[in-house]
Amino acid sequence: MPNITPVPTPPWNYIAKLVCIGDSATGKSSLTIRLCEGRFSASHDVTIGVEFGSRIVPVGPPANASLGIGAPNGEARHTNSAEQKKMKLSLWDTAGQETYKSITRSYFRGASGALLVFDITRRSSFESATGWLNDLRQIAEEGIVVILVGNKSDLAAQSTDVEGGTKRAVSKEEAEDWCRRENVVKYVETSAKSGEGVEQAFLEVAERIYQNIEAGKYDLTDRRSGVKGYGTGAGREKGKAPKTVNLTMNDAVKNGQGRGCC
Hints:
Layout: E1 14-21, H1 28-37, E2 50-59, H2 63-67, E3 85-94, H3 101-106, E4 113-119, H4 123-127, H5 129-139, E5 145-151, H6 172-182, E6 186-189, H7 198-214, E7 227-229, H8 249-253
Parallel strand pairs: 1-3, 1-4, 4-5, 5-6
Antiparallel strand pairs: 1-7, 2-3
Organism: Capronia epimyces CBS 606.96
Protein name: Ras-like protein Rab-2A
Family: Belongs to the small GTPase superfamily. Rab family.
């Protein structure tokens, strides 16, 4: 009998382009490094232009049932599924300095998801969020999925010189109100140093992109699209491939360890 070579299982079903945007020194690079490499660097050079990373995450059932992502009122959806779908997140970490804005804006084109990052302890970075969002929506794909991320959450409770004061400069309620006004789907607080909330933030974006795929909102064969299916020419970058790691469900729901500033 002839030998039959089994068809290999694809490492991912979809690939989606995500951008991390926001003011300089809000921790965008630290969030990307934490997600892609599972580590925190206390010192990081200022991003010039963009930096790139990637990670494979589960989307759709049964993962969304375990995490409760994207379901109405936060309730988990229970759907029978033969196989867990996976999405490769192509992450573009953009520079936040005004000097590089003309460069970074060009990378918004074709993005299907975005993390708009501000520093919880620096109010000016939150006040800049509206400008970043307007720039993004002018250039990126229509209906881009945007998550507002308040980073450096473990600094928020630290005391200041003022009696009874803390370093938190933006309340959770204020950030959530901003999301409702600006039609941003979710607010998540993160700490890049401890890892708390980081994977949740990226998974929130990925799950909503998957829901848009299921609703037929993307042309997966269009090379200009920020979302593609496996085997349509997506994900074959020239040169050395970026580091890719698999995210398990246990990774997605557990909090990071340790304390720190970012």
